[in-house]
Design brief:
12% helix; 5-stranded antiparallel β-sheet; 173 residues; elongated; mainly beta; 6-stranded antiparallel β-sheet
């Protein structure tokens, strides 16, 4: 199977595809996950393995991830072989692309991982393993939240009485 869809624990659906058709396994999501400094993982992270076959070392495999449309997504970060979070866009050959308009209601993230590179987290020359996820700038993660002003307790208690008074009021003609 080269495509897998899963629901994260926060209820969002994520689709992962090996564009090159490699078989995916161990596909899972982790949510919530602390993001790198200044960033947040709005959908948590996705871990998976892709069987790239013999002769995979040095060959790049392209992956596509679809998440609910989010114009605040600015990158894709993943763990490297040392367990450190790395901006995939800073890795040669990653070809990161984020498209907010191609799929109705979805944001498309594509990137490549080269077998045996520092962002391939396993030592198996026939498998690529990836724990990572799309990121937003941390302030954008809470930008969708709107503060609702609280009403004073006295006002809340007086409202039912006022409504009862209106219900009993009749217009005399």
């Amino acid at each position: 199977v080269s495509v897998s869809s899963l629901q994260t624990s926060n209820g969002d659906w994520i689709t992962l595809e090996s564009v090159d058709g490699h078989s995916l396994s161990s596909v899972a999501s982790q949510y919530p996950v602390a993001g790198p400094s200044g960033y947040a993982f709005p959908y948590g992270t996705i871990s998976f393995s892709a069987a790239v076959g013999s002769g995979g070392t040095g060959n790049a495999t392209e992956f596509r991830i679809l998440v609910p449309r989010n114009d605040n997504i600015v990158g894709y970060w993943k763990r490297d072989i040392d367990g450190v979070l790395v901006d995939v866009n800073t890795v040669a050959g990653s070809n990161l692309n984020i498209d907010h308009s191609s799929f109705a209601g979805r944001t498309e993230i594509t990137f490549s991982i080269t077998e045996g590179s520092r962002i391939d987290t396993d030592s198996d020359p026939e498998t690529i393993t990836d724990p990572g996820g799309p990121v937003v700038i941390a302030s954008a993660a809470s930008a969708g939240q709107v503060a609702v002003p609280a009403l004073p307790l006295g006002f809340l208690l007086a409202m039912p009485l006022a409504l009862l008074g209106l219900a009993g009021w009749r217009r005399k003609g």
